[in-house]
Amino acid sequence: MTETDYERARATAERELSKLLEERDEIERRILALRQTLSGLAMLAGDETQTGPSRTGSVTGEIRTILRTATEPMTVRHVRNTLVALGYDVGDERSSMAKVQTMLSRMVVSGEAIEKETKDGKAYIWVRDYAGNDLNVMGKRLKESMARAKKR
Question: Tens digits of per-residue pLDDT, 25-43?
Answer without folding.
Answer: 888 888 888 877 887 777 6
